[in-house]
Amino acid sequence: MAVTGQQPPLTLFVRLKLRVMANNMRGKAWRIVLFVLGLVFGLWWSVTALFLLAAPGFTDSLDGAVLASALGGGVLVLGWVLLPLVFFGVDETLDPARFALLPLRRRTLVAGLLVAAMIGIPALAAVLATSGLIITAALLGGWGAAVVQGAGTLAGLVLCVSASRAVTSAFATMLRSRKVRDLAAILLACLAALIGPVQIGVTALAATADWDRLLGPARVIGWTPLAAPYTMGIDVAEGRAWAVPLKLLVTGVTIAGLLWWWSRTLESAMLGAASAGRAKAVARDSDASPVAQLFPRGMPWLPRDRYGALVAREARYWWRDARRRAGLITFAVIGVVMPVMINVTSGGLSGSVPPVVISLTMVFVGVLGSATLANQFGYDGSAYAANVVAGVPGAVELRARLMAFTTYLGPLLIVIAAIVAAFLREPASIGVMLGSLGAAYGAGLAVNLLVSLHGAYALPETANPFAINTGSGVAKSLLSILGLIGATAVAIPIVVVTALAGDAPVWLALAGPLGIAYGLVAAWLGTYVVGDMLDHQMPELLQAVSPNR
Amino acid sequence: MVKRFDTNVAVAGIDLDVPAGSFYGLLGPNGAGKTTTLSMSVGLLRPDAGTAWVLGHDVWADPVRAKALLGVLPDGVRLFDRLSGAELLAYHGLLRGMDPAVVDQRARELLDVLALADAGRTLVVDYSAGMKKKVGLACALLHAPRLLVLDEPFEAVDPVSGALIRDILHRYVAGGGTVIFSSHVMEVVERLCTHVAIMAQGTIKRVGTLDEVRGDRSLEDVFVEVVGGRTATGEELAWL
């Protein structure tokens, strides 16, 4: 291209994204399968949502339309912001850092990346789902309302995408720098906690089945950026066309603000690690011997041998590697917030919570915690070659990894059980909680060892801890879901026993030790069986986790 | 040994004999299959056919014995780089089943010799390219292997570090060790190696002692001829 300062058209970014997506799948049958699975899953979800959102139109219910548009829109926008942080990661098919050397204006780059980000299954699903609101608007308010709603739906998509990009980009920049990681943790906690009040409100109000009481909050939400774009057409149908320009303004200002925020953090993402607070020395006594330096002070019981070295290295990595740390922090927040919310809303306010519910939520927490390991070898990348060359026995490798991870997760799980017990004011059920946690965590570890070996995939070498390659976005969520289902299945006996035993004092006393023992046995069996598989597949595993270059 | 990636043949049948005590250079242009060959020889990549022997031990049938004799510096030196140099060496030593006291003593010595002791508290991820190569080499040397397999040990290394690495490798071979390394830097190979193999398109094109391969010409001339390079006529790129 001649040096004229002319900026490329946005279609170029779209073509680039499509080309990269296609090339990623070329000759890789499993990636195509995963893509199709993702597409099917996305379509299934969005068609369901479409019917739900279109229902008020068919039943001729204006109130229903207000509720559907405000609450549906709000949930959608929140989902776009939170889910990438928590589960799926951001699709970095077009890594901003790759554009750093090109003479692109920031405005062009942001617009281009934004447009490119709208190509993909999530955006398609969101558009399809929210078009249910267009149907509702058309049935209730005629063509004018439908056209306004259509424009609003598109604006909503732009809002969703820019919000998700801005938040993840900002969050990634923060996590990269070790100094502000605590701040990042607090931010994430706040974001995740946003789910809480909404959930409590919705559940409490839905329980009373008094939809009129929801109308007020829904109308308020309709004026916030969360749902402003999605409620425009309904406003027209209700004869309040004057609201449309105001809501467009709310949406436009929000989008502009988000894009500005994104472009700020984008710059630091493009400059890459060079500016992100490098050259961090490990503040420690350098006179200590190398072996003493390797082993964390907090783990003096580790043997000074191969197993001990593996545990020590893993333990250091869970804290020093931004990607792993992101996994730990997100789990810490969700692990505390989610069970408290579920248990409190499912009757904690009125009185006692059945042991089965407590047990089930704890199983979910334990399983979710162990799922952090689902791609544990992917975190290592090609550095795993060191272990292959040294010929580490598979069982030793896996036992060490579980031990290191558990030194972080174990205390965390106990704290979660204590917090939930305190919230419910049911100290007697702490045994059931610990037992369910232990059983689910151990079972989850065993299942995720298997997943981490057979479902390992390479993470891109970028500084963004949430980055994943396209295709592996589906792979990642699919594998985590498979792991979650499998682990829950293995852990279910403890829930069944709890359901049968109810409040029997014997079980309240025995559940703790029995559940933990169950988990220990499951994890041990896992290292034994999967370790044997690993012994025969080390080179293949290394290849799977090495990024293509 | 043979290796295919999908339809792409990376290594199309290679038979290489590296004499014990030799300083062996594996030459080839980018994409010739050097890294693939070395990876298959040390047990990092499973060959589609064939195997590798290290001092009488089959790498793929008897990996434990063979790997104990091997020291490896993989390409791109992706190390566990969230550790400091000392921590990384301790990790590698213990991973090899060495006694902690020996690990401490050797690691300290290696860090001193390789001029990495000053960086003792910095994480390897923050090292310069040359320092990363040096600490990677230290990891490969720590357990005193009998065979060193180095992939591009002189790539992106400054002259001072390069000279240091050369000295250490010289001393290692003089002490009875064997070195095989890949490179496309002719001067280094010409200065160091006793034996040379030139690879292109997944096969060995020339092999033998350094003098056998180059004859009375320079190694670079032989290399360009074997690989089939082209020379610029001066006509193209006139706009530059």
Automatic annotation (TrEMBL), chain B:
Per the record, what is one GO cellular component?
A: plasma membrane
Primary site of residence: membrane
Tell me which UniProt keywords the record has, alphabetically: Antibiotic resistance, ATP-binding, Nucleotide-binding, Transport
Gene3D superfamilies this protein is in?
A: P-loop containing nucleotide triphosphate hydrolases (3.40.50.300)
| Pfam families on file | ABC_tran (PF00005)
Q: Which PANTHER family match?
A: ABC TRANSPORTER ATP-BINDING PROTEIN (PTHR42711), DOXORUBICIN RESISTANCE ATP-BINDING PROTEIN DRRA (PTHR42711:SF19)
This one is known as ABC transporter ATP-binding protein
